[in-house]
TrEMBL record:
Its EC number is 3.5.1.-. Pfam families: PIG-L. This is PIG-L deacetylase family protein. It comes from Geodermatophilus maliterrae. Keywords: Hydrolase, Zinc. One of its GO terms (molecular function) is hydrolase activity.
Length: 244
């Protein structure tokens, strides 16, 4: 008889992998949560699929934007205790659901061997259309396909084992950000200054904003109220999917 799936996320993960489309995606939606993980001893790796070269709000030459944003993401990661940041180098704004992308994410999963993966929801959220960037949805779906079945199947992408000696790995749970069916909130009030430091590292993306802290705090306060947290608390929310 099959054991029932857990009803909530694991209390602790030894290793976690965050797979997002662009530099800054993890920081807007999840940097507070990541800070709680690293402070609890979880080793966190970032896998950023593009360099974000189609972003920005000034006249920075396009050939300079990608390197700038990679540096910003490394600085933002360091602010919340993450030192392992990897970039896949796919073109910003042109992501498609391909076998190559599934293979490349599967490779990182097999390298890192995380118990927990955080990514963006593949579902469109019609009430918050800005959360449903096509790149976000593509990365979310590609990551879920990499988690199940690709990374755990030794016969999927056999070159990963034959040529790179990367054995199959099963991820236990996936946390989906910007999901219309979020079922778990993380209180990030006590680490919010770390999240703000991470966000402010993305100068090319937030330098034009007068009050990025107030803007993001408004989101998080609304999330906290939605999940019944006490007044004055701030939260990030996820749909937690158990896969093992």
């Amino acid at each position: 008889m099959t054991a029932p799936l857990p009803t909530g996320p694991a209390d602790h993960a030894e290793r976690a992998l965050c797979v997002l489309a662009h530099p800054d995606d993890v920081d807007f939606g999840s940097a507070g949560t990541v800070a709680t993980w690293t402070s609890a001893g979880t080793e966190v790796t970032y896998c950023i699929v593009t360099d974000g070269d189609a972003g920005g709000f000034d006249e920075t030459p396009r050939e300079q934007m990608g390197p700038l944003r990679r540096d910003e993401q490394r600085a933002a990661a360091a602010a919340v205790g993450v030192t392992d940041v990897r970039f896949l180098g796919y073109p910003d704004g042109r992501l498609e659901l391909t076998l190559d992308l599934r293979r490349d994410i599967s490779r990182v999963i097999r390298q890192v061997r995380p118990q927990r993966v955080l990514t963006s929801s593949p579902e469109r959220w019609y009430e918050r259309i800005g959360a449903s960037h096509p790149d976000h949805m593509t990365v979310g779906e590609s990551t879920l396909r990499a988690v199940y079945p690709d990374a755990r199947n030794p016969f999927a992408f056999p070159e990963l084992l034959a040529d790179e000696d990367l054995e199959a790995w099963t991820v236990s749970e996936v946390w989906l950000g910007a999901s219309p069916r979020a079922d778990h909130a993380v209180d990030v009030t006590d680490v919010v200054e770390l999240k703000f430091a991470a966000l402010k590292s993305h100068v090319t993306q937030v330098g034009h904003m007068d009050d990025v802290e107030g803007f993001v705090s408004g989101w998080m306060a609304q999330t906290a109220r939605r999940f019944g947290l006490p007044a004055g608390r701030l939260a990030e929310a996820f749909h937690v999917v158990h896969t093992a």
